[in-house]
Design brief:
359 residues, DNA-binding, Nucleoside Triphosphate Pyrophosphohydrolase, 2 domains
Length: 359
DNA sequence: GAGTCGTGGCC
DNA sequence: TGGCCAAGACT
């Protein structure tokens, strides 16, 4: 057992926290029943994403794809469109692949052991523990950022929560707690406490239901925990993008590669180009069999900040003749139909500036 | 172990 | 205003 647990009153803590949760939990769409599929979808959407952001996406997604079978049979592009704006798009592609596995290997029923769930694409230790405990009420740990924050304060653990080894330490601790109470309610209670009371900044210790158990509170060090190493700032990339229009009023869009950043989403032709003359963009167009645009002008600048990159995009518009010999990833679409393709937010900004403003 | 992979809200 | 964050997983 972890040495920090020596003076910790495990049973009292588990009971008091679980009682608090049952009286104070929020009404959330994925808490209306115990459907393992819905809980799974919610857990994937909630990865690194706020509850308020997820709620409308979750409701739309479940009405579009109510069962694993429905999601398995959907077009990938339809799934990505439903995910548009949520970010981390590999979550959507991995979820659909995993749901296909569940449909084929488990008859469409989400398996109920951590070992089996862990094999599914996009499901790691946290999500596997969350599904098995929340949907099937099994005594597994589900350690996310909330749980590490709460437990680091309760036990004054100063390990860097950015490290994988730290998460494992907290998993061991939670495993030794969750067997003493209702696993579904207890795991959700830890996260709910982190979301509502034991918040990253200015935690509400005065109204905390387990303040008597909290070592950080006793020592007055709650604002120093959890410990998290600073990450380095994102790297800037100068980009040039071009909205090319033909004589029919169509614009040229391009599907991004199958892997990497924003995989399989659509965009306007663009490339990294920090030149003043736009030579890289011209080379890029030439490589795709596109003639020099008859007119081209710089109409906008778009900044888009990712976790690890900043795109500084100079946006151009140009006229070009329709060319039959487009390479596979390029496509002419009517302006009104651009909205039916999944675009990252960076290029939605271009749509707003260039396409919609023209109408 | 350290990078990669999005987005919007917050103070 | 911009750095930091929010229910992580994959390579």
């Amino acid at each position: 057992m972890d040495k920090q647990l020596n003076e910790f009153n495990i049973e009292a803590f588990c009971n008091e926290l679980t009682d608090w949760y049952r009286k104070n939990k929020r009404d959330l769409p994925w808490r209306e029943d115990q459907d393992p599929y819905k809980i799974w979808v919610s857990e994937i959407m909630l990865q690194q994403t706020r509850v308020d952001t997820v709620i409308p996406y979750f409701n739309r997604f479940i009405s579009l794809f109510p069962t694993p079978k429905a999601l398995a049979e959907a077009e990938e592009e339809t799934v990505l469109k439903a995910w548009e704006g949520l970010g981390y798009y590999s979550r959507a592609r991995n979820l659909q692949q995993a749901v296909k596995e569940v449909t084929e290997d488990y008859g469409g029923v989400v398996p109920d052991t951590k070992k089996e769930i862990l094999k599914l694409k996009g499901v790691g230790p946290y999500t596997a523990g969350a599904i098995t405990s929340i949907a099937y009420n099994k005594p597994e740990a589900a350690v996310d950022g909330n749980v590490m924050r709460v437990m680091s304060r309760l036990l004054t653990i100063y390990d860097d929560i950015g490290k994988v080894t730290t998460r494992k330490r907290f998993e061991d601790i939670v495993e030794s707690l969750v067997i003493h109470t209702n696993p579904s309610d207890f795991n959700q209670a830890l996260m709910e406490l982190g979301a509502l009371i034991c918040t990253p900044r200015s935690p509400s210790c005065l109204i905390c239901p387990v303040q008597e158990h909290c070592s950080a509170r006793a020592e007055g060090v709650q604002d120093l925990l959890p410990v998290k190493a600073k990450k380095k700032p994102p790297k800037a990339k100068a980009m040039k993008a071009v909205v090319l229009e033909n004589e029919k009023g169509q614009v040229l869009i391009e599907k991004r590669p199958d892997t990497g950043l924003l995989a399989k989403l659509w965009q306007f032709p663009n490339c990294e180009d920090d030149s003043r003359t736009g030579e890289e963009l011209r080379r890029y167009l030439y490589e795709r069999g596109l003639q020099e645009p008859q007119t081209i002008e710089n109409v906008q600048h778009v900044r888009h900040v990712f976790s690890h990159i900043v795109w500084e995009i100079d946006v151009f518009t140009g006229k070009i003749e329709e060319d039959a010999a487009l390479c596979g990833t390029l496509k002419w679409v009517n302006k009104e139909e651009v909205d039916t393709y999944p675009f990252p937010v960076s290029h939605q900004k271009i749509i707003d500036y260039v396409i919609k403003e023209e109408k």
